[in-house]
Write a structure and sequence with these properties.
Structural class: alpha+beta
Helix content: 25-40%
Number of domains: 2
Largest sheet: 8 strands, mixed
Bound molecules: flavin-adenine dinucleotide, iron/sulfur cluster
């Protein structure tokens, strides 16, 4: 009996492939649709949408949407006339198609990630906060992302940034991609929204406004696309992106969480919310000065579909990745990854624009980042290409003290029982 003849129950688990793409790139929408969009790997990053030169990929930026779909009727949802004629832009842009992870690693760092580098390749890890109190106050953690954007604009590295705003006066808490070209606009976009915002979608507006040099801010699903585009030579779409800022991320929530959980169970209406954060629990501050906590366990049912198989917690292909993990709530955990990232951090430190602590002051934060990165990598399906799951085995679990039971240190906590100070969304 051959393997293919074996009854389904006895079939061996398929071995993950480590095949690299070679030769002329011929992959088109049909393959993207089959291998990424309908297989569950698609994050909804929208890189394929903005890369399509024929404008035949649609996208709905609202609950239940966040997935690309084909607009032309000729060949249906699964195939594309332009693809049949040789257009390959969408697969060149996609940071989940085929060997995306080693492609981005090689392009950015000249080598593949080692299995010990669970949170991706990096040069240094720091704890950083904006020195400007106003920037710091408006920022989610240390205000570093906003400080970097303002500095990049002032120094002429960029003339615009693709960021996330809240629509209208902010009272609906609906996130909306947009362009920031000055300090005021950067600060209007500061802070974190935990629903999805496909910042790439602001790209067309940036181009229409004649902007040539852009920064992209986004979670790993978005910030892996520029290096993939550059390596796969997509042409002019990737070129304007000159700086790439990643946001650490375990998941985003569907927008329905506001009405179906926060309002229905806790009576917190969208318009009452002033700020939110995730530190072991969903923290919500309201305009009346009250503070509320919603257990993360209750939120998981509203996890956005596109996050379910995402392997990239630490935004591993950004110039600088940033997060809110750790005991210093008013600092941004900062992973400097590329030479350009280091140059920017060094110059900002020299100019006195940021305050910095070595990451050694909070080793539990690094341990937690690696642990959450491991959890995310384990979500990547065994049937997909194997690279994202390459990592050292997990450290052995510490034995629990007999009695009295001590609270588990951050590095040992299970994802569902993260300690206060950890940010696991
Ligand atoms: C959806 C999401 C999940 C996150 N999960 C974690 C986590 O699990 N662990 C962790 O340590 N850190 C997480 N972070 C990162 C953290 O919340 C901060 O964004 C990061 O520490 C930078 O803080 P800052 O004060 O330096 O940034 P700020 O100066 O406040 O700038 C934040 C930037 O992020 C952009 N932004 C805000 N919301 C979104 C969004 N939904 N989509 C795209 N861009 C957005 C803003 O436009 C702004 O430019 C998450 C962030 C987001 C947006
Ligand atoms: S992951 Fe991004 S680029 Fe890939 S198919 Fe989905 S939306 Fe398009
Ligand atoms: S978990 Fe975060 S990085 Fe991954 S797909 Fe979801 S939003 Fe993107």
């Amino acid at each position: 009996m051959t393997v293919t003849d074996a009854p389904a129950g006895d079939a061996p688990a398929p071995e993950p492939s480590f095949a690299r793409e070679e030769g002329r790139w011929t992959h088109q929408w049909k393959e993207l649709y089959e291998e990424v969009i309908t297989s569950g790997l698609c994050t909804g990053c929208s890189a394929c949408v903005i890369s399509c030169p024929h404008d035949v990929i649609g996208y709905e930026h609202r609950e239940g949407g966040y997935k690309p779909f084909h607009l032309e009727e000729e060949l249906g949802l699964a195939d594309c006339v332009h693809g049949e004629k040789g257009c390959t832009s969408c697969t060149r842009a996609c940071p989940r198609f085929r060997d995306w992870e080693p492609t981005a690693d090689e392009h950015l760092f000249g080598r593949l990630r080692e299995k010990e580098e669970i949170s991706g390749i990096s040069e240094q890890v720091l704890l950083v906060r904006a020195a400007d109190d106003h920037v710091h106050e408006l920022g989610q953690d240390g205000g570093l992302v906003s400080a970097i954007l303002i500095w990049l604009l002032d120094e002429g590295y960029i003339d615009g940034a693709l960021v996330s705003y809240l629509e209208g006066d902010g009272s609906t808490w609906r996130a909306k991609p947009g362009v920031a070209t000055n300090r005021e606009e950067v600060l209007a976009a500061a802070g974190s929204r935990y629903t999805y915002c496909a910042n790439w979608l602001a790209y067309d507006e940036a181009v229409e406004r004649g902007l040539k040099d852009l920064a992209l801010v986004g979670m790993g699903c978005q910030t892996s696309s520029p290096p993939v585009m550059w390596a796969r030579k997509i042409g002019k779409v990737g070129k304007p992106v000159k700086f790439n800022i990643g946001l650490l991320c375990s998941k985003t929530f569907d927008d329905r969480i506001f009405d179906e959980l926060f309002d229905a169970k806790y009576g917190i209406k969208r318009e009452q919310i002033k700020k939110m954060n995730i530190k072991g629990v969903f923290q919500i501050w309201t305009h009346d000065g009250e503070y509320h906590e919603v257990p993360l366990k209750e939120c998981h049912a509203w996890t956005r579909e596109g996050c379910n198989h995402c392997p990239d917690f630490a935004a591993e292909h950004a110039d600088i990745s940033t997060g809110g993990i750790g005991k210093f709530n008013d600092y941004t955990l900062t992973v400097v990854r590329t030479e350009l990232g280091r140059e920017v951090m060094t110059r900002m430190i020299k100019a006195g624009l940021v305050e910095v602590k070595p990451a050694e002051e909070d080793p539990a934060a690094i341990a937690l980042m690696d642990r959450l990165a491991r959890v995310s990598r384990n979500r990547w399906p065994d049937t997909a290409i194997g690279f994202p799951k390459v990592m050292t085995p997990p450290p052995p679990k510490k034995k629990k003290a007999a009695a009295p039971a001590a609270p588990a240190p951050a590095s040992d906590a299970q994802p569902s029982e993260v300690t206060p100070g950890s940010q696991e969304s």
